[in-house]
Amino acid sequence: SVGDLILHVFSQAIPCNVTGVWRNELGSVLDIEAVGSELRGCYQSAVETAPGVTGPEHQAKLLGVTSNRGLQTSVAFSVLWEAGSCSSWVGQCFQLPDGMRVLKTLWMMRSVASCPADNWKSTRMGEDTFVFIS
């Protein structure tokens, strides 16, 4: 039955450790440490919407939260960029049967608007898949 199939899939859930270094499909690097339910670390961006907006080192401090209460590990984290924009990710860490870990996220970036009329173009959204590298 469908119910038995769902129970089988959920029984295969493996806790996923988010501490470590991760790389996404654009080459950005996420270096995070989970301490209890808190995430701290650094985000090194491989891309920026305009020269210099991510700062001279293209990196920012990361703060967030994580939970292992469900069948998989959920995460939410944010960074504040040098030029005042901010980005946030929310997603889930998956420990695959082959031992590989992936972090599937959706992100939202808010750029600084110079006036209320420019508000419409100040928010971008997308998705990232981070792969554990060390």
UniProtKB/TrEMBL annotation:
Cystine bridges: C16-C93
GO MF term (any one): biotin binding
Places the protein is found: Secreted
Entry keywords, A to Z: Biotin, Disulfide bond, Glycoprotein, Secreted, Signal
Pfam families in the cross-refs: Avidin
Domain of life assignment: Eukaryota
Gene Ontology, cellular component aspect: extracellular region
Entry-linked InterPro entries: Avidin, Avidin-like_sf, Avidin/str, Avidin/Streptavidin-rel
Family to which this protein belongs: Belongs to the avidin/streptavidin family.
Protein name per Swiss-Prot or TrEMBL: AVID protein
Lineage: Eukaryota, Metazoa, Chordata, Craniata, Vertebrata
